[in-house]
Write the structure tokens for this entry.
Amino acid sequence: MNQSTRFLLSATVLSLGLPALAQAQIEGPNELPDGDAKNLVQGICVACHDVSLITGSVGYTQDEWRYLFGNMINLSEPIAGQMAAYLAANFPPSGQRKPVLVSGDEVVSFQEWKAPTLGQRPRDPFMHTDGTIWWAGMYGSLVGMLDPATGEMKEYRLDPTARPHSVIEGPDGDVYYSGNSNSTIGRIDRQTGEITVYPLGNPEARDPHTMAFAEDGTLWFSVQNSNFLGRLDPATGDVWLTQLLTERARPYGIRRDSEGMLWVAYRGAYKIARINPATREITEFETPNYGKNPGKGHFIRRLAIDSQDNIWYVDSGLGEIGRFNPKTGEFKQWPSPNGVDSHPYAIDVVDDIVWYNESDVRPDTLVRFDPKTESFQSWEIPSGIGIIRNMSHTPDGNLVIHQSSTNTVGLAIIGEENNARYSENRVSQR
Ligand code: HEC
């Protein structure tokens, strides 16, 4: 492909600035093998990510390649066919990274919806108190909204440099996003759709990440690579930032417990931290795997909190889940069914059952862990290719999930009662 065609494609596909490197996926070499469509793939597919995601993929048939990249970009013939043939010839199904599934008694079904803008990397979905589902479309620099009752969707376009990492509902019902690439927090008025932008105002705090509200209505957030923790008062726009004591802690997931304390997972260290929002005091706790990380660069990505204020977390480096009891100081960890390379990622607790995903197997699995019996059960996610990067529960005990590569947001509907209720109202799969 010549330069001008390539420019045209990249410019029409996305006008988002530089791509962020994908994390957690197994990445292959950044060089494609020779072949007829090498230049096409090289030219078109790098608009959003490196070719290392292609060379490191588990491999697919021609039809599967079409399905996969058809969720990222709309290509006409004969280009799409040539690329699928080249990809299937060089990266056929390898049978690698297939998950071991664990059977059990729980009933789970899935409902998934395709996000309208292709290749947007939908992530961090949650159900709003009004029943709508919201997500951050990071690569598309948008925030999406879905009414699961009707299947209707709407996308709110943000400043192209915002590239939101996460979304969350505020006490006022408005939807807040973290502008991961332009160092802002934004608020979308739920009634009018009007967007208010709050700059962090410190050039060293570049990448606001995951957010949680304190009981006093202030918004707390991790600033991952910049190693800060932040607080925004939406009433005044005032931002307070503090650098973490642990170097390269890379603060990641953040949640609030029943006493109003905030807990943060460190992606860059085997630690979790507690923040008292009233005094702004930060206390760090080392997990038992301190010093044992296999050097993959990820430690504790996310955490969730049960009804007894136990902190549940994913040890993404060692493929385990863990529990910290702040009252006794006791830690305990369990290996995930697919072992050290499974990369547990997102996590939440529903009725004191722990749910998380194993993100380095394909398909991505949803895993259930019952702390009482210490037993696991797991399912393949139907759209199947991608990563759940954050999940959250709904008021009626289901989970809102997504798949980053196949461009979906979805519901994991849990238990016989919920499944009976949802089957009555279910809209057709898109
Ligand atoms: C508009 C943006 C965009 C374009 C263009 C694009 N992709 Fe992607 N692709 C994505 C996103 C988003 C992901 C998920 C990345 C993540 O989770 O970090 C992804 C992930 C992947 C993966 C990893 C799948 C897995 O195992 O999860 C493969 C393989 C892939 N893309 C192939 C391609 C090919 C082939 C092309 C060119 C035809 C292409 N992509 C073009 C957005 C895009």
